[in-house]
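STRUCTURE:
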């Protein structure tokens, strides 16, 4: 196994492997980044590197590496959130565990995959663990929202920031690990916004939906000439609002409109999200007579409104947390 094979920002993989090789790894690590950017895969690789008995850790093949990968190693413990929260009892149990000697390895590795879910008591208990680090425990916190962690927790950890994955890397992983056909892997990678998890979870007909959006817009332009625009708008809205969630057709519509605007202004085809639609979209933008920028703004606002109720609790948590945490 090599660090270069990990599905993550290659810069982070290089930094981490250099720290491990030179023994400069802090006993408290914080891996931050959007979902699907490889934080968990990297945390597992760090645990393997620390517990591996091969000549070039992590070898990926020894008994220890294999047991870490399958979650069966006694010195590798994952503290999943219990429902919505990481509870104080879990944080206290983690603290107690770090006081014990490792079972087999020279260290124990404790992983908290959703550190932003620690409640206040749990955060304080964890902070005490960080303030008095055990010589034989390494703690790895993962988070999509570092601003939700206590600043004192953040400052005591060595932080690594994961950027969205390049589309080419997402495509390669889909083809190599997931057996996804090349053409499908290409569009999934393009629409994934740097997240392997999103690339995998996109519905199979997502690209077809974008093509349907483009065809429908073209047909609406024809209907506009014939004075039947209102009816065709009602038809399309009815058809697309039967989609669940309604975000999907709106997102595709926004992407197609952005591509149209870019194509109209002569952007290179390979910079478009839907290069195969490029010339058609460019012509369409010409016929939209200046309404495209305002339409794009309206779509962005509509998507914002749609997403708000779903992500409401996270937004509220983040705002309140900013308000309540002392700097
Ligand atoms: Zn190994």
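SEQUENCE:
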């Amino acid at each position: 196994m090599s660090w270069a094979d990990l599905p993550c920002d290659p810069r982070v993989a290089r930094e981490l492997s250099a720290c491990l090789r030179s023994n400069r790894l802090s006993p408290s690590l914080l891996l931050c980044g959007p979902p699907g950017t490889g934080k968990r895969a990297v945390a597992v690789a760090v645990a393997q590197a620390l517990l591996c008995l091969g000549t070039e850790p992590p070898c990926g093949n020894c008994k220890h590496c294999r047991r870490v990968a399958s979650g069966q190693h006694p010195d590798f413990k994952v503290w999943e959130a219990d429902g919505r929260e990481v509870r104080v009892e879990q944080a206290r149990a983690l603290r107690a565990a770090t006081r014990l000697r490792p079972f087999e390895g020279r260290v124990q590795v404790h992983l908290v995959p959703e550190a932003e879910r620690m409640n206040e008591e749990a955060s304080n208990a964890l902070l005490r663990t960080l303030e008095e680090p055990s010589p034989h425990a390494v703690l790895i916190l993962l988070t999509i929202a570092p601003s939700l962690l206590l600043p004192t927790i953040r400052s005591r950890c060595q932080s690594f920031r994961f950027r969205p994955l390049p589309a080419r890397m997402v495509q390669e992983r889909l083809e190599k690990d997931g057996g996804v056909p090349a053409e499908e892997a290409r569009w999934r990678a393009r629409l994934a916004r740097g997240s392997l998890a999103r690339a995998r979870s996109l519905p199979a007909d997502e690209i077809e939906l974008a093509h349907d959006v483009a065809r429908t817009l073209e047909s609406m332009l024809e209907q506009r000439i014939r004075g039947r625009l209102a009816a065709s708008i009602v038809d399309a809205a009815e058809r697309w609002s039967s989609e669940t969630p309604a975000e999907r057709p709106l997102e595709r519509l926004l992407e197609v409109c952005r591509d149209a605007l870019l194509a109209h202004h002569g952007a290179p085809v390979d910079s478009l999200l839907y290069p195969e639609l490029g010339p058609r979209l460019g012509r369409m933008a010409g016929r939209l007579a200046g309404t495209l920028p305002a339409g794009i703004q309206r779509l962005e606002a509509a998507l914002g409104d749609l997403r708000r109720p779903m992500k409401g609790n996270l937004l509220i948590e983040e705002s309140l947390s900013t308000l309540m945490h002392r700097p």
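REMARK: The longest strand covers residues 137-143.
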